[in-house]
Write a structure and sequence with these properties.
Number of domains: 4
CATH topology of the largest domain: Rossmann fold
Shape: globular
Largest sheet: 6 strands, parallel
Bound molecules: S-adenosyl-L-homocysteine, iron/sulfur cluster, FE3-S4 cluster
Number of helices: 14
Structural class: alpha/beta
Number of strands: 19
Radius of gyration: 23 Å
Strand order of the largest sheet: 2-1-3-4-5-6
Strand content: 15-25%
Length: about 450
């Protein structure tokens, strides 16, 4: 009988990409991939640790998995950033975990599974003396690029590609550099070839991933820059879109803006993580730009790429943030007019500089600021949405809408969701839609020729 595996994903697109790689590895080992834990022999929990809430979710899920393990002997494998951060410590709370595996070790899954099987044999034979032997912990990483694994995205329309690993920025609030190590980038030729393969397989969207995409090329040869990489991929023949996350505002060079402006294949949606609108807080965050420099970048993006939509990440309640500082954030939100913003309350991460700062902000103040920020951003998103009224947009059809089964869901190049009535066979195609209704987060329209 064939065996089943489930992969549960938390966190960012990098984890979504790594989960696809894990599924591919398991399929190659002969496993069926299922979403049903109750039918699984092997459950992977691919974790995140960027904010405190992440751990709470993971603990909840581990409790659920323990029951499956007790009932049917389901193996529990924990991968991703929380696994990397906690390592062996996790076993104290959850001795039910079979394998703890860091980000850079997923290519060693077959090896780890073999070890677990051997342990199983020893247990069956009643010979296990050292209890620690029951678990496999692989959380090391080195300066080399991890082995390439071509993920299969199962006929989805988007393929994501890791262009680089790690982060050297050490923003003072952030744990990512500690759990993903130092930056290393994959040579350009290899990436362009990989993108060609994905386009040939029929993917309609190529998403480039790195913690700081526009640092791409560090450590590679001259000419291997992010702008040249984008151009190289845009030059591949075929009808597809290129997206990328995340760029760092400090490193957003003019050559990248020019390449986007020149190539309609590069999506008209750019993520520009603000974090804070206050120059003082930005400095304490070690972000490397001021409020004014950030606003200049926004102006430049909007003037050189007139149809661009911007999105952002914002943290409220960073240590020492005054009401005045927070108002600077609101001011930037008004001026930048983002399409969407991911907004977070500052969350202490152990081992980071900001975690040690004395002037931590009270929970109530953080909550209040987050609410005020969300309501301002909702107003702005609503305004941006209304601008689409009557326009004809070329959208990529993603399939049936989850909320409204009679409708198809699609996205514009600027990353706006558009719902419309149409034949399900349009999935994976680009179609032109005339927008006739604009809600804050969703547009509605009809197909035009
Ligand atoms: N490398 C990417 C993503 C970083 S994590 C980038 O730099 O854009 C995604 C977002 O989580 C960050 O942009 C930040 O807004 C938020 N974040 C990171 N650490 C945080 C913390 N300690 N508390 C609250 N939000 C945090
Ligand atoms: Fe974290 Fe800053 Fe690196 Fe992004 S750039 S991953 S926020 S340290
Ligand atoms: Fe989370 Fe790791 Fe991504 S901490 S946000 S999964 S890089």
């Amino acid at each position: 009988m064939s065996k089943n595996a489930t992969v549960i994903t938390y966190g960012c697109q990098m984890n979504v990409n790594e989960s696809a790689k894990i599924r591919t590895i398991m399929e190659d080992l002969g496993y069926n991939i299922t979403e049903k834990i109750e039918e699984s022999d092997m459950v992977f929990l691919n974790t995140c640790t960027v904010r405190e809430g992440a751990a709470t979710k993971i603990y909840g899920k581990l409790g659920e998995l323990k029951k499956a393990r007790d009932a049917r002997g389901t193996k529990i494998i924990i991968t991703g950033c929380f696994a990397q951060e906690q390592g062996k410590k996790l076993l104290q709370k959850f001795p039910c975990i079979d394998i703890i595996m860091g980000n850079q070790n997923i290519s060693k899954i077959p090896e780890a599974l073999e070890k677990i099987e051997k342990v199983q044999e020893v247990i069956k034979a009643g010979k296990l003396r050292d209890k620690k032997l029951k678990h496999v912990v692989l959380t090391g990483y080195d300066d080399e690029l991890p082995p390439r694994i071509d993920a299969d995205f199962n006929n989805d329309i988007t393929a994501s590609m890791t262009i680089g690993y790690g982060c050297n920025n050490f923003c003072t609030y952030c744990i990512v550099p500690y759990v993903r190590g130092r930056e290393k980038y994959i040579p350009m030729e290899e990436l362009i070839n990989q993108a060609k393969e994905y386009v040939k397989k029929g993917y309609k969207e190529i998403m480039l991933l790195a913690q700081n995409v526009n640092s791409y090329g560090k450590g590679l040869s001259e000419g291997e820059t992010f702008a040249n990489l984008l151009q190289g991929i845009a030059d591949i023949e075929g009808d597809f879109l290129i997206r990328f996350i995340s760029p760092h505002p400090r490193d957003f060079t003019d050559d990248v803006i020019d390449v986007i402006a020149r190539n309609p294949k590069i999506a008209r949606s750019v993520h520009v993580p603000l974090q804070s609108g206050s120059t003082k807080i930005l400095n304490d965050m070690n972000r490397g730009y001021t409020k004014e420099q950030y606003l200049e970048l926004v102006d430049k993006l909007k003037s050189r790429i007139p149809d661009v939509a911007l999105s952002t990440d914002i943290i409220v309640g960073f240590p020492g943030e005054t009401e005045e500082n927070f108002k600077d954030t609101l001011d930037v939100v008004k001026k930048a007019k983002y399409d969407t913003a991911f907004m977070f309350m500052y969350s202490i991460r152990t081992g980071t500089k900001a975690g040690e700062m004395e002037e931590q902000i009270e929970e109530e103040v953080k909550k209040d600021r987050l609410q005020r920020l969300i309501s301002l951003q909702t107003e702005m998103s609503n305004e941006v949405s209304k601008e689409y009224y009557g326009k004809i947009e070329r959208v990529l059809v993603e399939g049936a809408s989850r909320k409204n089964k009679d409708m198809l869901s699609s996205r514009t190049s600027s990353n706006k969701v558009v719902l419309f009535k149409g034949d399900p066979s349009l999935k994976g195609q680009f179609v032109n839609i005339k927008i006739n209704q604009c809600k804050t987060w969703t547009l509605y329209g009809e197909v035009v020729d």
